[in-house]
Design a protein that fits this description.
Blueprint (H helix, E strand, L loop, with lengths): L18 H18 L3 H7 L3 H9 L6
Helix pairs in contact: 1-3
Length: 64
């Protein structure tokens, strides 16, 4: 499973366009689906806050 972070990167501040935007949206969609599939024990082991995780999962793919 790929490593995931819930923090913003400096690249997130730059607007993407064209194919880069589509790739970004698909990555967000895939990452949020992976997060949603985590078992509660995996969430605890990773040290993720369940409330922040839920908030991230519920975001639409176009929202950073």
């Amino acid at each position: 499973m790929p490593a995931l972070t819930l923090t913003r990167s400096p690249a997130a501040d730059r607007p993407a366009s064209g194919p880069a935007l589509l790739r970004l949206w698909l990555t967000r969609l895939r990452d949020r689906r992976v997060l949603a599939a985590l078992h509660p024990e995996q969430i605890r082991e990773a040290g993720l806050d369940p409330w922040r995780l839920r908030a991230e999962i519920r975001k639409p793919f176009w929202q950073a």
